[in-house]
Amino acid sequence: MHGFFNALAKWLESTFWATDIRSSLWIYPYVQLIHFSGLSLWLGTNIVVDLRLMGVGRRRQTAAQLSEGLFAWNWIGFCIVVLGGFLLFSSIATTYIVNIAFEMKLGIFVPLALMWHIFVQRKTRVWGRSVDTPGIAKLAGLIELLLWLCVVTAAVEIPNN
């Protein structure tokens, strides 16, 4: 299996876009900017809904209404994150696949946080109908916040490994 991932990483690095990103002085930072902008949009919308589930913030909208209003922005941010991350990964894929922080981020924390996010997003429709959310909703929001914190911490550690 490792041989397959190594071959895939080498192929990705040989693509024209990966070569351009890697060899240009300005493209890599620009792609990073796109990735981080998408991450800000993705995490920002997640955090707002999670905090509302936890009872933090103004009570003008229920958590369900807030989640519904931010739904499209949330997933637009996710698509931007994936695109930017894929381009960054492509440029030095063989380096990333042996990086323990990268493996933790994409192998454990991102799938777990993403599945939890989808679960919470679906349950928010039920839990967040009233201004006061049940205790389970508050716990779910807190868990999601902590999972995304793990993702960000692993991402920050990638250059150090």
Helix-strand blueprint:
Layout: H1 2-14, H2 16-23, H3 27-53, H4 63-91, H5 93-96, H6 100-127, H7 135-157
Description:
The model has no long low-confidence stretch (mean pLDDT 93). The chain is built from seven helices and no strands. The chain is mainly alpha-helical. The chain has helices spanning 2-14, 16-23, 27-53, 63-91, 93-96, 100-127, 135-157. The two termini are 22 Å apart. 29% of the residues are buried.
Amino-to-carboxy terminus distance: 22 Å
Overall mean confidence score, pLDDT: 93
User: Helical stretch count?
Assistant: 7
What is the number of strand segments? 0
- Helix vs. strand class: mainly alpha
Helix content: over 70%
Into which percentage range does the β-strand content fall?
under 5%
**Major sheet attributes:** none
The parts where pLDDT drops under 50 for at least 5 residues are none
The geometry reads as elongated
Q: What is the element string, with H for helices and E for strands?
A: HHHHHHH
Radius of gyration: 18 Å
Task: List the keywords.
161 residues, mainly alpha
Summarize the structure.
The chain is mostly helical and 161 residues long. Helices cover 82% and strands 0% of the residues.
